[in-house]
Amino acid sequence: MERLKNFKIFRRKVAPINEDYAEFVEKKIPVIWVMSPENCGNSTISSMLSECSKFQLIEIDKLLKVYSVRYANNPEVIHINRCLEREMPVPCQILIKALKEEILMSFRYVEGFIISGFPCTHSQAKLFVRKICAVSVIVHINLKLDAYLTRVLFYDSKTDINKARINFIKYNRKLQPVRKNYEDKIVSVKCVYPKEDAVTRLLDILEDDYGFKFKRLYTK
């Protein structure tokens, strides 16, 4: 009996249910990722896609800046700012936390989300699916290396072309697992001019193959 008196019962702690998150999951709101290397028309196509719908556009760079201002005294923000200054990726956990907060604040007022510039790695993709929700469609803006380098030089003639080439190759290698594991959800779009043509083709695919409905703001 003495041994029983000293015996402690350890109970597993159960995380409190987040009512906002439970409601979000129940509504099954669609989420579209738009991924591409820098200067491939990601922001432009994402913005145009958002204008044709009631989907909220979330741009990763802008999201992190807003998050940094909102939590200026948080140690995480110091880490975010350091990463942004050094052009390093923000840790997955912090990025997903910021995304989840943004989504839970606004999901009641939109029909879906378009996340521009995401994911950059397979780890980001996996953590998003585990912590937030499944992705509905992944728009991959496709561009060949030569075309990419031409675009980069057009935007900034002083760009280090070798560095740009290496970054492009590294980026595509990082995304190989994403393309492999989410193959059935990827829509590949060529970055062409005029940009209205690229968006019109994308809308055709999203409507015909995935059942989305968009306003046709751009003529075919």
Automatic annotation (TrEMBL):
<dbReference type="Pfam" id="PF00406">
    <property type="entry name" value="ADK"/>
</dbReference>
<protein>
    <submittedName>
        <fullName>Uncharacterized protein</fullName>
    </submittedName>
</protein>
<dbReference type="InterPro" id="IPR027417">
    <property type="entry name" value="P-loop_NTPase"/>
</dbReference>
